[in-house]
Amino acid sequence: MSIRDTMRNPICTNCGGPALLGEVSLEEQHLRIENARLKDELDRICTLAGRFLGKPVSAHLGAHHLPMPSSSLELGVGSATNGFGVPGQVPGSFNVPIGVDRSVFLELALAAMDELVKMAQEREPLWVPGLYGGRETLNYEEYLRVFPRCIGVRPMGFATEATRDTGLVIINGIALVETLMDANRWADMFPAMISRTSTTDVISSGMGGTRNGALQLMHAELQVLSPLVPVREVNFLRFCKQHAEDIWAVVDISIDGLCDSVAAVDCRRLPSGCLIQDMPNGYSKVTWVEHSEYDENGAHQLYRNLLSSGICFGAHRWVATLQRQCECLAILMSSVPTREHTAITPNGRRSMLKLAQRMTDNFCAGVCASTVHKWDKLSTNSSSPLGADVRVMTRRSVNDPGEPPGVVLSAATSVWLPVPPARLFNFLRNERLRSEWDILSNGGPMQEMAHIAKGQDHGNCVSLLRASAISPDKSSMLILQETCIDASGALVVYAPVDIPAMNVVMNGGDSAYVALLPSGFAILPDGPARNKNNDDGNVEGGSLLTVAFQILVNSLPMAKLNVESVETVNNLISCTVQRSNLLSIVIAKTAKHRMVESRTHLAFWKSIARW
């Protein structure tokens, strides 16, 4: 009754006098309350939109300019606005998981972007320079003092890694932004680091035909090429913003806890990404920040220091890989002559490079057991010297023209060697020394039949090698090999290939029908690069060497796996690790003696290839 009396005698909120409005219905009062709520909501949206767009958005536009949203971010999909009330800039479709307010994602993305930009620009005491000019690491106490937590407190038992690195990359800013915002191109740019990725939802595709304001949900599997380090599965927002005419930023932030559909994870990405500034002559200055929290219990003790220091997943590795890949693209698109031993047509070069990329992707999938293939992990012999350190897996290859049909067995392990990565890499890739460890060489040096350079470093290339024939009446074998090296590590991947099929490929034919099973080596430094050795100029330190094989054990896909095959490959890997110290001694010795005497010390490599 008091409320009704008050409604019959309203007071003007501006002057305090009586408001001559007559009887006010309860329905009209509800409409006024709803209008006030919607006005507050509109003001909040416009404030967010202003930060999102980088310019103010008025909340007082006419109805024909700004349709009134009925909920927090129903952003005018299909209308002539960009969803934030700015005419003429259509960002594309919006698709957000049910039950999650769009504004929550927007606020999280904006907070992550602010943190990334600050972390990319701050110096000491937030960032601590590494020894010998190495990568910068985060002062975690200073970080907690300066920055609010975007995604809550660190889970119990989780470790933290945070690094920053800066480098010049031969790619312009817009092209790099497009690569990062496209899941397939992002995976192609970092093939040894990303085993699988997808864009699950596009919340905004950008404005005015650009990626400015693009916001999307993504899923990725990040990997280190070792069976001793679990694949990291992450679900995250990726947000792109143009901060100036020549400056872009792309940031990732995990969405764990925001969506009921996101299960418990063992890795979270805190604001991570890169600040990109266009430079003269087609280059970009890239400042990369990588910040993660992860459950280290799944990683082998051998890799825990490398994980915490950022050697495995840190900013230095992303920047080094980006520099090498962009240099490769620049060389392949240029008219610089190459030192090819045979005339390969441009179409043949493309076909051969595509085949090599597929070979390397399959090698990585076999080492890390990513979901690219369905692998079944087998138990290893606990009595072997390595026990669980050897991963043996099997899968069935059916109806895949790029692989021989049958039962495929994969075996991989990682060991530490007291040899610098570059020296180990140069030994393994040298075709003249191939006979020291590869039975496919038939006891003699291999001949390089074709060479496609992929970088200024001679180690970055795709080669076609020919082994010596066993006898005059038998044809020799061809081996396709891809090698790559940068400051973060190295790869040597190879596979025997069919001679008629390679003739088709080198003439520009389709490489998808060339069947191969790759094997090879992945090399990581065992710590930050230290001072150069006075003797040969190589940096000091050791290496973590991953050895991996994929072998066809039966040509019938439905055949049962032979137990003896599993035991044999387990024993071979164990033998490799037991003899690894001999390998390191030989390589160190041959730094001065050109590895002439290595034949007796490396017989165990022959046993691996012979099997």
From TrEMBL:
Gene Ontology CC: nucleus
Coiled coil recorded as keyword: yes
Annotated Pfam families: PDF2_C, START
GO molecular function: DNA binding; lipid binding
Signal peptide: none
Key word Translocase present: no
Domain START: 98-331
Location in the cell: Nucleus
Keywords: Coiled coil, DNA-binding, Homeobox, Nucleus, Transcription, Transcription regulation
Origin: domain of life: Eukaryota
Family: Belongs to the HD-ZIP homeobox family. Class IV subfamily.
Name of the protein in its database record: Homeobox-leucine zipper protein HDG1
Source species of the chain: Acorus calamus
This protein's encoding gene: HDG1
